[in-house]
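Notebook entry, structure prediction.
Reason for the run: the old model in the group folder had no record of what sequence produced it. Starting over properly, with the input documented here first.
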Amino acid sequence: SSLAIASVALATIAIVSGFFFWPGLGVAFVGLVLALMALRRITRFPDEFEGKGIALFGILANVLILVGGTGFHTYIYLTEVPEGYTRVHFWELQNSIEGPDQPTQKAFEINGDPIFLKGYIHPSSGSGLLKRFILVPDLGTCCFGGQPKSSDMIEVTLDGGQATKAGLTKKKLAGTFILDQGARKLTDFDNAVFYRMKVDIIR
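New structure, fully documented this time:
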């Protein structure tokens, strides 16, 4: 059964993708569905299809990846925020596409607070090791979405002589969030920035 073989191939892909990026666990889910379909087909038509052992292995492998990957990412989510910081999601700082490009109510509420937030370094920030950069919420805004809106950007300054390598990997930051009442114009960006963050910890 080609479905059984495909389920094992997807399990192999999911081992890598699922543990690095939680959406990659969807590959294991698809692999599980294919393995179940293969087992059903082999059972109903034993003279036409074989590979029951492969299908069973595909079921077991994909289930283990789904369970293990879910537990792994859950553990990371529950333990990644340093003590003394509050998790903030980037979408809480973004206005809708139709709405005005201005600070959100959440931004006013957390002004001056120690927060934990995740995002991507915009390529216009430079290459190599960076001490200052613009943080954006996703790779679409970072690389394929053109100029980000003001509420899509945070001007980040690393404290304590820290530096981080530019790239397309997601960054985890803990530091003080600052809301500038008057937006600041920065080079390489059409829209001004009114969010800043002084970062104590970056991973």
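Summary: The helical segments are 2-20, 25-44, 52-79, 105-109, 139-144.
The old model has been moved to the deprecated folder.
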